[in-house]
Amino acid sequence: MKKATGKLFVVLVAALSVFLLFGNAFAKEPYKIGALFAVTGPASFLGEPEKNTALMLQEQINKAGGINGHPLEIIIEDTKSEESTAVLSAKKLLESDKVLAIIGPSTTGESMALVPILNTAATPLLSCAAGAPITQPVKDRPWIFKTPQYDLSAAEAIYGYMKKQGISKVGIITISTGFGDAGKKALLEMAPKYSITIVAEEKYGPKDSDMTTQLTKIKAAGAQAVINWSVGPGQVIVTKNWHALKMGIPLYQSHGWGSKKNIELAGKAAEGVIAPLGRLVVWEKIPDKHPQKALLKKYTQDYEARYKSEPGTFGGHAYDSIMMIVEALKKVGPDKKKMRDYIEKNIKNWPGTGGIFTMSPEDHCGLDKNAFEMVVVKNGDWEILK
Amino acid sequence: MRKGDLSAFLLLIFLIAVLPIFSGSPYTLTVGIFSGINAIVAIGLCILMGFAGQVSLGQAGFYGIGAYVSSVLSVHAGFPIVVSMIFAMVVAAFAAAILAVPALRLKGHYLAVATLGFGEIIYVILNEWGPGGPSGFGDIPHFNLFGYTIDSTKGHFYLVWGLVAVVMFFSINLIHSRTGRALRAVHDSEIACNAMGLDVAALKIKVFILSAVYAALAGSLYAHYVTFISPSSFSLFYSILVLMMVIVGGITNVWGAIIGAVVITVLPELLRRFEELDVLVYGLILTLSLIFFRKGLVPILIERIKKLRGFAVVKH
Amino acid sequence: MQFLFSGLTVGAVYALVGIGFNITYNATSIINLAQGEFVVIGGLMMWFFSESLKLPFFVSVALTLVTAGLVGLLMERLTIKPLKNPDLLLMIMITIAVSIVLRGVLMFYFGKDPYVYPAFTEGEPLSIYGAIIQQQTLWVIGITGLCIIALFFFFKKTIIGKAMLACAVNPTAAQLVGINVSRMVMLSFILSAMVGAIGGMAITPISLMEYDKGPMLAVKGFCAAIMGGLGSNRGAVLGGFIIGILESMTAGYIHSGLKDAVALIILLLILFFKPAGLFVSKAMLQLRKF
After folding, report:
1. Which residue among A183, A375, B259, C145 is least enclosed by CB atoms within 10 Å?
2. How confident is the model at residue B88 (pLDDT cuts 50, 70, 90)?
3. Cβ contact (<8 Å) for B135 and A178?
4. Among A32-36, B251-255, B257-261, whose mean pLDDT is lowest?
5. Segment 183-212 of chain C within 8 Å of chain B by CB
């Protein structure tokens, strides 16, 4: 009796092991990627769509069989928009979770704090922040990449269009945070190239309620157009103030304007506002043959179905970062150096949400002003300007 | 120093030496580094509040001054780090002196608002005129002395906590010295002190300056560790955070500042799992501990230990 | 001129927050640093009732006030009442902790987006002396004025109001004459919450509302209250408008980056040279507990 039970037991154990080993489709090791997003704090308008995008993509990829059979595991940490938390979170991801790469963080400040850490850890960082110093100079930052467009490119897109309209005197109003400051610097830097003179520079705080004072000064300085560079409620308030003041000169916004919510909140004040937007926001209006259209359509529709809101430009940055890493993993496997090299050398004419990327050893961002379309708000909807 | 303090101090030294060996994970050590930096600020505030009885909601201002002055001097003027740090502390001391003279005539809420105003003004100045403005600036060099640079996590841990020990040593001796006793007398009754001939005003100013110097030291340590600073780290939010550390740890005992700093720094890390709810949980824990443990963790702990030993508990 | 109007717009909200501080302070000697959150609650709940539930205007207003009052009540019952004889510091910390909890809850339900609803009256902005002023701004100022008058009558003429004031000056004496101090404390929180909510309801059509507008409003409103003299509602109103106008003028004539600092510098100067504020005498200052 004992012998029979013993044999039965062994058979059962063997069967169980076989079942466990092969019954599970993901018998292979998961590929772990870290993600640092500002889910809470002042930059949460960036972090939240980024996090949602990451979760959605993780699920979609794993449903489709993972990456060469390996499940994708994205470990998301909230940096609370704080640099010291970003540092702590990055260390946790690198050392405790041993991730292969890190996506994010959401803001330039946080990204800058992480540059030395990721360089030392020889791990690729695909930032979702826009500041040029994140990736420049590339030779000092070989492991750092970023997917959002340069602020300089957005400024160029605006100025290029303005030049065609014959505008030469401009007043700028920016928010006193890193985002606004970076925009201001970009606007100042690019102005001479397009023969634009900046006649007024005004600022406001992130929680300010009224900007009529600043706008009045801009008008008084003789500006022919106003450029507002901010994200968050400030954009809407400036728009409403601009409309109420009947300033008579066009209002341009930064690429942070790209969300239907802004049109909704500003109401009829938003009519006529112009901005350089990534094609993600206006995907319905671009021609079907455009290389970005198909993926923009899929991403937007999937995101809206799942989260009942639009992903916006910022969610798109996370999309681009993640898909680049996923492609690298597919092609060269879980080797940090190989992944880094792949991204630097093989991402060429790569359609993403932010634009068509071409990375190189000199440029770890890969986008220029052609990533934008100049868009105007007409009848409560976007319209692409020619 | 007294027996209790001496044993606590030896325990501190022991823990500092041993922790990196037991838990060498750079993540844990990094949490420890930030705790230590916060502890230094908290110790200063604790002495100011617990012993001199003055409230300050502006420590972030001195913290920021420390970080920015030290960074700017070492990056743009090429000063050696130690010199920059000392300069930073001197500048903070000056700022504190200028603020203290008019401010310390105020009491209670008014003093709190004055310090709050000061902290905010520093923040606006840094945001507007600080190098890099709101975007901050980076490439700040790590701490180095006579050519030896500290750039490992372990190294920074020892540096920061070594300084915490030094600051504690100095502070404990201060508290038990004549000046310390004078401070406590001021806390209890200013009128009596004035009657006895103590120069209360001068004393309060000195302590205020001391707390500012500690905060500046911590600020420069922060800057040379993270190598990137921006004004957002030095806002009112941080001042309130330090205040929480002191209160949670217990105002009446300087060791409370260290415990409070560690708790408040570690707590968000432990709450990561709550994701969206972590702010809520954090607030709840804080509220509950303020209601139920309002004396602060350390005094309550000491009371419990004394009770265990059978001594009568004498209220402070 | 435009600068003046801009200053009046924001100043009115600061004034209402300052009044909220005063109400609590007058009854309890406590400074409730969660006051800013009540403004946010006012704006967001108004949106919820009028836009999300599509209830009529006055119903939404009433419900918002009730909600705000409830939150004030809860805060008082759960966090203030259990403490016996708290000291200044503890109270500051607890109200800060509560404000964090409130923000967390608001963030959870409303997310981080800004919200808006239409102004109380539709129409083009008015033009006065060449500067435009939005109709909603006039509402904000008007409502603030109404609040001040209503509160004046309340505190000076009604029994309950006078009882509340008595509690702050000397709670023991108040109890001796039969005032239910604990109930007064509760009422003061409810009232200050409602006042804050009114501010939020009025300002949202102009400047939108999101979950974290609270702390900045609390700081500025507190400055307004101190400038005018803690406890004096007239003072808070003046303080609020002064701060708002100063900010606007600084942005307009000097440099827009400095505007936050200017209000603070003026505050510091007042504290150093006339700490009782503009409307409270030094003698009254000595009487206060804190």
Report:
1. C145
2. very high
3. yes
4. B251-255
5. none
